What we know:
With 805 residues, the chain is of the alpha+beta class. It contains 25 helices and 22 strands. Strands 3-4-9-6-8-7 form a 6-stranded mixed β-barrel. Strands 14-15-20-17-19-18 form a 6-stranded mixed β-barrel. A 4-stranded antiparallel beta sheet has the order 13-21-12-22. Strand 3 and strand 4 form a beta hairpin. Helix 14 crosses helix 22 (723-751) and helix 22 runs antiparallel to helix 24 (768-794).
Amino acid sequence: xxxxxxxIRYALRVAxxxxxxxxxxxxxxxxxxxxxxxxxxxxxxxxxxxxxLNNAARLVRVFETxxxxxRTLVSxxxxxxxxxxxxxxxxxxxxxxxxxxxxxxxxxxxxxxLECESSLLPLMGLPVIRGRNFTPQENQPGDGxxxxxxxxxxxxxFGGQNVIGKKIWLNDQPYIIVGIMPDALNVLGESDDVAVxxxxxxxxxxxxxxxxxxxxxxxxxxxxxxxxxxxxxxSLARVLAQKYPKRNGGIGVSAMYLHRWMSYDVRPALxxxxxxxxxxLLIACGNIANLLLVRASVRRREMSxxxxxxxxxxxxxxxxWTECLLLSLSGAALGLGLAAIGVYVIKTVExxxxxxxxxxxxxxxVVAFTVAVAVASSMIFGLAPAFSISRAxxxxxxxxxxxxxxxxxxxxxxxxVFIAITAAIATLLLIESGLLIRSFAHLSGIDPGxxxxxxxxxxxxxxxxxxxxxxxxxxxxxxIERLRRRIETIPGIQSAAxxxxxxxxxxxxxxxxxxxxxxxxxxxxxxxxxxxQVSPNYFKTMKVPFVAGRDFNDHDDNNSQVVAIVNQxxxxxxxxxxEAVGSVVRPYLPMxxxxxxxxxxxxxxxxxxxxxxxxEMFTCIIQQEQTQVAMVARTSGKPLAFVNSIKxxxxxxxxxxxxxxxxxxxxxxxxxxxxxAFHTSVLTAxxxxxxxxxxxxxxxVAAYSVAARTAEIGVRMALGAQRSDIxxxxxxxxxxxxxxxxxxxxVCALALRKALAGFLxxxxxxxxxxxxxxxxxxxxxSLAATFIPALRAASIDPSRAxxxx
Length: 805
């Protein structure tokens, strides 16, 4: 312990004597370790941290697979067959998510609803906070008017008071509060405010084998592996495909651990970002290693004297490693604080799209990881100097230091290797960020097909109990038309319309049939079409031009011919060689009317902006009455300035109707690119840091090389070397390692192209202009970093330089 304390005191003294280089090393480590710890904190929460459930390791999501569809929802009929026939699971539960209007206490509120089987909470090992769970009888038709509240809704809406047995209204239907459900239910993938029993009512068409709207959670039996369960589900899928070829033909069944399912979408991006921050840390370590090699060259006389006086070589290595460890621990302490700030910022950025943002926190795993990174970093950048000293021989070193101050060739080669490595890593990160930037630029340049500027969107959900189009035809259409006309009377509102699905959002897809053509043999052979209900004036409000035909009008009501408008992709796909206007089509479902096409509009992005436009059919919302609607209003000024006026009119039209999810269309468009923007910006920032650290390292090595070779340069100039020769010599020696590293980084980027291909749009992972630009830029940066030391070398006075010899 006495020797350890001596090592620490000596390391602190060395740090004080070299305060500027010590500060630079700690700064680089703070950036590198801080970024690494920040990303590990996110990965720890999203991928490593166990779910807060007693049997989380055995919980799996069971899902259907189909051609060209990686994962799909499940029909209720298929689930019943699974639950009856599968033996790999000792429990299964059906659930889905929806939304409802909450009334009956306070202002109307739109809430997220978990519709679940009574077995869900016991399956997850979760008790209710207060009250009771649902009973199996409540999952049967006519007996499902119970509701459980989330803790957050219970506290915010009811102040945490005893509400068991009290009544609330969801979509104008009375429900009795029977319990308070735990927050851990959020691990199912979406947050929820209330839970209601899912009803196994097979007279409802949405619960037949043709409709996929449910999700399934199951628990593996003890001793059964996931591989065995997947094999059994696949076998059952083949049986169902033979039994129901029209509906289940081509459908498979698979399973995935719940923990992996939750992070499935963000896992690749998180791993890429973690690799990027580790690369930045390696660059920082490489720069510090070069710094310590410089120190080792300066301190060779000191170390040689110690060896000559009998110092143990291991003792010297330990002393030097203690200095490195103090640097790392200092950088780790500051980096931990930097990581805490970064985690706070990322958790507050909506574009991060993290599945479990509440779990992202600095815990003991993060602290242990930080200490491990600090120790590993000290070994990485302290290894070369320690190895150099351990090989020193006292007599040779003292003879060498008696006459001149140049560093050994071994030190020079080692530093060149570190420069090449840092340049390679910086090149790799710059190529990746360059590809993402170009991809994002392509994505941002896509014409959505409509004008998103000055458009306000507001969601409305009409309770089916009062707006039942089956019992009262026209009730929805009349309400929407009255509301639309009243909104258009607001000064500054140019036009308003309604739609069942906003552009750039997912919408229902249905198989389609064209009258006069042979229908396909099975459901899955039938081409899919997006079907959206819109009101008159919708295409005018969104500024989508017509190619042929007309818009919907006031005459398109329940007493007139059922009409539809299609896009250009629909015409190209289904009506080749036919006149589009006047053609007759219908969804491939029983009891659905034929639609007469009255217009064709230009293609616009109804789905994701990074996906090609698909065949789409727009039906009149007055005829095909839809209770879940979104209002779009084109304004002459800032759209958000009209929110209060629109909400007031909605409240006057129906006081129990909440207006929710108020966004501008520009915000909807930005939300489409949120994760890409987040991923691109983070990787670009890391690439910029890597470039800065690499440039500093190249400059530092070149500057020290000039200082160490002052006498040699003086001799060369005394023997007739020109200043231009000296500049070329320094530039060549300083930039060659960086240039070699740059091409090595480009080769590594090519090797990793498949990992990045899924994040790109409009370009390939082998985009030649990006590679060429990055390589040229890195060569320019290395030349610029070496140019100042080269000029300094060319200005050396030979007479003064020879005094060093």
